[in-house]
Amino acid sequence: MKKNNAIKLIIALIVPQLFGIMGSLFTSPKIDGWYSALARPSFNPPSWLFAPVWTTLFLLMGISAYLIWKRGLNKRENKSAMLIFMFQLCLNLFWSFIFFGLQSPGVAFTEIISLWFAILATIIAFFQISKTAGYLMIPYILWVSFAAFLNYNIWQANGGEMKPVVNINPTVQSQNQ
Q: pLDDT tens digit string along 10-19?
């Protein structure tokens, strides 16, 4: 592997992980308090599962982005694909801010729909350049599809309003503190 490509690979692997770390700054402080107090559906995965799943998905995203980037950003379609990729990463981070930071599952649900379409656009753009890069994004859209369904069910189970959800169940919150 050329030195230039090795640097691109390292950067492509680090950038999505950095977005994940930034998202966790909104998520982690709310898991034991606010999130655990929410009414959640029976199919809600255990909290410990999210970190390894997201780490793996961000790794796959990084490899996928590298496969596009190594083909060069001087081609318009490559540059456009990478811009769409970065946009969906921003939407991913924004979802964490809305759902956990603002404690607003309703608004987060509308945002995750936008994220889903941005991921789809990324997959389509990547497939046109590298089939492998496109395929590597499929687990991500599948997980976000599940996350959207979960987000919707949490939103509905907690009043179905578009405003922030706070102090859902004070007795549960006081038990967690």
A: 999 999 999 9
pLDDT digits (tens, 9 = 90+) for 38-89: 999 999 999 899 999 999 999 999 999 999 999 999 999 999 999 999 999 9
- Identify the CA nearest to 106 among candidates 145, 169, 163: 163
Burial class (CB in 10 A: 0-12, 13-18, 19+), 72: exposed
- DSSP for 116-155? HHHHHHHHHHHHHH-HHHHHHTHHHHHHHHHHHHHHHHHH
Query: What is the Cα–Cα distance from 75 to 59, expressed in whole angstroms?
Result: 25
How many other C-beta atoms lie within 10 A of the C-beta of residue 87? 15
Q: Residue 161 sits in which domain range?
A: 3-176
Distances (CA, A) of 51 to 24, 48, 71, 105: 9, 6, 31, 19
CATH number of the domain to which 90 belongs: 1.20.1260.100
